[in-house]
Amino acid sequence: MPEAEADKKPELAGHRQRLRERFLKDGGASLPDYELLELLLMGVLPRRDTKPLAKALLKRFGSFAAIVSADAAALGAVEGMGEAAIVLLKSMRTAAVRLAREEASEMPVLSSWERVISYCRAALAYEPVENFHLLYLDRKLQLLGDERQQRGTIDHTPLYPREVMRRALELGATAVILVHNHPSGDPTPSRDDIEITRAVIAAGKPLGISVHDHLV
Fold first, then answer.
1. CATH number for region 113-215
2. What are φ and ψ of residue 29, in 5° steps?
3. What is the DSSP letter of 188?
4. DSSP 100-138
5. Tell me, what DSSP letter sits at residue 46?
6. What would the pLDDT profile of 182-216 be if each residue is shown by its tens digit?
7. pTM for the full model?
């Protein structure tokens, strides 16, 4: 059934068409967050006015990024959010992280450092607990792999230097970038952060594997 027939109110169909036209005109640059959410939700909620739901999501989570980064249970607690809408929003974050990762992989790390930072933010910024990611690099400092080594608690993540080096050898990596998040939002390295960095450096030295950086 065409969407215009599915919508019960002609003004709703007209509003949706205007949103689509505005999006196509400038790629969505002029759409505020709630209208972008409306547009996304239209595809899975063809018979509903999605503006109230979009505004409810923003009121609950505060920003577009926080919405797509929220876990499925939290999204499902918002009235009107069903499985299809949850999958849609979560897939948006997955797509954004994959795009950022591919962009970061296109050239050596040193010449695409801002892309690497953007990827790390996309992957970890809204995680509710600490996660340790490892970026493995080849001799040309190009990305060989990105793997989550550990998932911890709200303020601690264990990392095992021997496991880091074992995986580096399997991949043929010559350098590693350590990346982890602080759910508190404070990027200041803790004493544990400094100690684990030193331990990984020490484990890699006899193997010829360096620690290029530790991003928090």
1. 3.40.140.10
2. -60, -30
3. P
4. HHHHHHSS-GGGGHHHHHHHHHHHHTT-SS-EEEEEEE-
5. T
6. 887 777 888 888 888 999 999 999 999 999 888 88
7. 0.63
